[in-house]
## 1
Amino acid sequence: MTDSDLDSLFLRIIAGEIPADVVHDGERVLAIRDINPQAPTHVLVVPKTRYRNAAELAAADPGLLAELVSVAGDIAEREGIAESGYRLLFNTNADAGQTIFHVHLHLLGGEPLGGLTGGPLKG
């Protein structure tokens, strides 16, 4: 895929052009299961408005950033992983492993996750 294809991937999912396993569809936030899960629970929490990365989102709309975290917490409860623990992760820019430049929050859990020694989480 080209950079523009990757950039528009989430917008196409949000528009319903590309199928996805949706776990939350709110007014401003969509959450979908990752197609290449890194844990038993791996959900991507995506704002419906495109911001390039977490820093850009935080500067432009801190309330939406907080909503992503809140939605992730709600999903963790529904998935039964809140009590045992879960990880929330933003990859910000290429060196951190970000490959789709539409900010998205990874919700990971369902097993002991250990440290982040395996390299960057792609996405």
Note: The CA atoms of residues 77 and 113 lie 17 Å apart.
## 2
Amino acid sequence: MFINVKEHDNVIYFSSLEEKLKKLNQWGLISEKKMNNLISGKKITEMKSILYKGREVDVEKVCDVIGYISYKTNPGCINPVYETVVIEINGETNKINPAFLKQMQSKDFNLNTFDEENDGIA
């Protein structure tokens, strides 16, 4: 299910292509080599489209990663910050877990293997 971004979510929108590419690499959506090539301009190359394959769309759709939301976790947690990806799809701004979005990029991804409570959506 889509989870729309709310006004109180404090979205951090990307201010540059370099910032976006670094986050995509951090979340495992593009390789470090691809990121460096795109940032440096060494190779004229295009980034592969990021796809959304959720229940709300009848076919996979290209989505645009436009930012993220950063949440502080409990002091005892391993990671002091948790991030949610903010995407634009079908003219709506939504949020999704970066690991789940990464899984969607697999050609073998099948949404039917996930249940409603554990589908990784933020």
Note: The chain has one domain: 7-107.
## 3
Amino acid sequence: MMRTIDDYMNLHYRMEIIEDPDEGGYIVSFPDLRGCITCGETIEAAIANAKDAQKAWLEAMLEDGCEIPEPDNLDKYSGQFKLRIPKSLHRELAEHSKKEGISMNQYCLYLLARNDRARN
């Protein structure tokens, strides 16, 4: 069965909102809908614009007969994984997290998030 524009608009696509330090306002994108991006002066305006951009993007894809990806399903991820590391790195991470006054788990999450942001 072919999905309609309303079917796609009712799916829960992840929306990313980032502040635009150069131009001001906010930039909104849908990671699962490649190239679907917009902006707004306020978060509220950016979200409203994002819904319009999403609908226009989906309509264009349907019109062109292109395949539309399904939203990424986060339910398949537990949020946990096991990682084996050298004992010396384990000690170093434990010492740094103790200095920061947080758990090693929180410290590693901080390092991963910081590194991931720097990559983008």
Note: Residues 78-119 form one domain.
## 4
Amino acid sequence: MMHPNALLIQKFYEAFQRLDAQAMVACYAEDIQFSDPVFLDLKGQQVGDMWRMLTSRAQDFSLVFDQIEANETEGRAHWVASYCFSQTGRQVVNDIHAKFTFRDGKIAVHRDHFDLWKWSRQAMGWKGYLMGRLPLVQNKIRHQAEKNLRKFSSK
């Protein structure tokens, strides 16, 4: 029998498979904190807007998840998203390890970890391969993502 917080993680990723951002956000506490190598520190509404933006723009998207573990306070999962990166039209397979902290039956902290250089090689081709490890390039990726999120959130 799965722990209720493991079931919550499963519910989150099943919603993600359906590109149902509202159901994903319903798994979060109102003051959710999220970070990954691109979005370093999102809070509250920003996190929901990020998922709404990403799911609304998803092309050729699929997601698989496994290795769900959870207890009363923390959990983890592994997931792989495959999609077409809209800015370049290139196919990306992003392998991600997630860690969660729970509070009152909701996800309070969500941290995703993946190799940004590997992602940039897939998303940007030879430019990502040659320059994707450089902090300047990684910061440019982050800046563009933040800009896209601000623009999406303002609508």
Note: The chain has a mean pLDDT of 95.
